[in-house]
Amino acid sequence: MLLDFEQPIAALEGKLQEMKKLAEESQVDVSEAVKALEDKIKTLKKETYANLTRWQRVQLSRHPDRPYTLDYIQGMAEKFIELHGDRNVSDDKAMVGGFGELDGRTVMFIGQQKGRNTKQRQLRNFGMANPEGYRKALRLMRMAEKFGKPIVTLIDTPGAFPGLEAEERGQGEAIARNLKEMFSLTVPVICIVIGEGASGGALGIAIGDRVLMLENSWYSVISPENCSTILWRTWAYKEQAAEALKLTATDMLKHKLVDGIIKEPLGGAHTDPEKMIKTLKKKILETIDELEAIDPEERISQRIDKFSNMGVVNELAGGIENNYTII
Amino acid sequence: MSWFKRVEKGIITPTEGKKETPEGLWYKCPSCKTVTNTAEHRKNMYTCPSCNHHDRIDSAEYFEILFDDNKFEELDPNLTSADPLEFVDTQAYPSRIALTQRKTHLKDAVRSAHGKMNGVDLVVSCMDFKFIGGSMGSVVGEKIARAIDYARTHKIPFLMISKSGGARMMEAGFSLMQMAKTSAKLALLANAKIPYISLLTDPTTGGVTASYAMLGDFNISEPGALIGFAGPRVIKETIGKDLPKGFQSAEFVLEHGFLDFIVDRKQLKQQLTDLLTMLQPEGTAEMAAIETVAKSTKKVK
Questions:
Q1: A170–B214 C-beta distance less than 8 A
Q2: Domain ranges of chain A
Q3: Of the CATH numbers 2.130.10.10, 3.40.50.620, 3.30.950.10, 3.90.226.10, which one belongs to the domain with range A58-312?
Q4: Where in this chain does the record put each CoA carboxyltransferase N-terminal domain (chain B) (predicted)?
Q5: How far apart are CA A74 and CA A80, in angstroms?
Q6: pLDDT score recorded for residue B194
Q7: What are the average pLDDT values for consecutive 10-residue runs of chain B, which has 301 residues?
Q8: ipTM of the prediction greater than 0.90, yes or no
Q9: Neighbouring C-alpha atoms within 13 Å toward the C-beta of A287
Q10: Cβ-based neighbour number of residue B75 at 10 Å
Q11: What pLDDT is stored for residue A320 in this prediction?
Q12: Among all residues of chain A, which has the CA nearest to that of B246?
């Protein structure tokens, strides 16, 4: 599948293939023309991806060929043992987790999982977890803590599932509990938004010592479509909504709501998954090293302080002075 | 008989044009339509004397109901919204805030206060639904966080009265992180073993339900309050079916195990006092009980 802004690039790439094929058949030297075209493609790509609108990034974050949580885990880890169930109601297929080995070090992986075809998408409930998913995630986090293993969560969800049974089983309570409990985990916690980071459904596994975002992922309080529906009463304003929400990795880092951005291959993670997986693995290992050097109690208090400082308010001192503070 | 027929289809009077009964005289219960004298309704703590419908009330009313002689010290009253994202939808966020402030005489969607309830110290943060749907942005998050810190440093029980449509979209990422911030503060409050009571009132939904509202040592509610994570309309659209009667009501949430009890507003103050007195270290409970009894006998006289 091609997105609008991918089409001109694809067209040129098609031309290049054609030219190469023609050259092979006719034994004519076209190397100069090929090089010129290759340069043109490179420039176009650079230009396109440097100037993506926020909505285009949202589209990239949802690209059907984009690597999902299990692709990353299986690509990164030498060994992975998936663990199931919340020990209460059921096993939520939209939330996966288990112990994996990264360069011989054990890590607890947790993340939302999307499906690639209709059948899988249904099985994974489009990456929208039920309360069981959040409780399973918490169970696995506590287990990681028990055995002293760092936690890596991979976030990719259009939101927590807004269903009838989800309400009956306390979707709100399940997410709320995770937020509170994750502040007391004694092991390092790294959270990475790999695709979509929508609202409480994302935050429910995203309280970390380091919260990172892939270059073309988004993270906000609501999806652009739903924001448009609420504020403009129609889906049609999703592009404006995406702009207004400032939901890209760059925006979120600028506002100090996340700790860093992980670069994707030019054109997005789906154009070179292998490279993307390698980059991510390197970043995770580095970050674990960095965090393990900190005393656990200090780590927890830094985690609490970081989130406590998020927000911008005006405080009227003495009722006269308008004192603009970034708290 | 053409004059009995509608010339134009549907109701064409705009909502603003509808004539309401002038305020200040009578109150008509939206549930059973019983008409009550406003003063009577107020004395009844804004509940219907006929069907016990609990009307939505604001922080001013809750403070008056809970604090002895309506005496309290307001905490952090001067925090107002900034516009970090320069958010513009159908209007710019700062002008929306200014307009709402003028209309409601409130600074934002939550107020915090410290006072005494039947002689027992209490810190309360109470949301105001009429301020942009009680939505949670940086100010709400920060004020609640500071109230929790205040309760923790002064070792005073904390009561959160939630009433909100959820996170405030106009502060996007910042709003979302208020869920994390308040939860972090509550984790510290729990470590300090300070009681936290969360009163979920009509309506409590979205990011507020998915953070501080559901994290009480005691989660309590008022009769008939709407409590949920996703709004009923969203769920209906998702499942494509009508929702069962009473779905997401306080009674429903109690039945599914997420509330400790539902309390009638007229008993709220006494019930909270009893609960907090029971939690006090041995010795202090008796003292407070004596105080309460002394007070109530005074009233009888």
A1: yes
A2: 4-51, 58-312
A3: 3.90.226.10
A4: 25-294
A5: 7
A6: 97
A7: 69 66 78 90 93 95 97 96 91 95 96 97 98 96 98 98 96 97 98 97 96 98 96 87 92 97 97 96 66 62 45
A8: yes
A9: 26
A10: 19
A11: 38
A12: A168
Q: Average per-residue pLDDT in chain A?
A: 93
- A301 vs A183: CA distance, rounded Å: 9
The span from the CA of A277 to the CA of A77, in Å, is 10
Which of these ranges, A44-58, A235-249, B267-281, B287-301, has the smallest mean pLDDT?
A: B287-301
Tell me how far apart the alpha carbons of residues B217 and A146 are, in angstroms, rounded to a whole number: 25
Domain B56-299 grouped into CATH 3.40.190.10: no
Residue A23 distance to chain B (closest CA, Å): 53
The segment(s) of chain B belonging to CATH 3.90.226.10 are: 56-299
Q: Is B126 annotated as a binding residue?
A: no
Chain A positions in Cβ-Cβ contact with residue B257 (cut-off 8 Å) = 170
Mean pLDDT of A50-77: 96
Question: At B70, which amino acid appears?
Answer: N
Rounded distance, CA A167 to CA A90, Å?
15
Q: Which residue of B has its CA nearest to A238?
A: B89
- State both tokens at B110: 């939550």
Tokens of A13: 């790439």
* Residue labelled with tokens 């094929």: A21
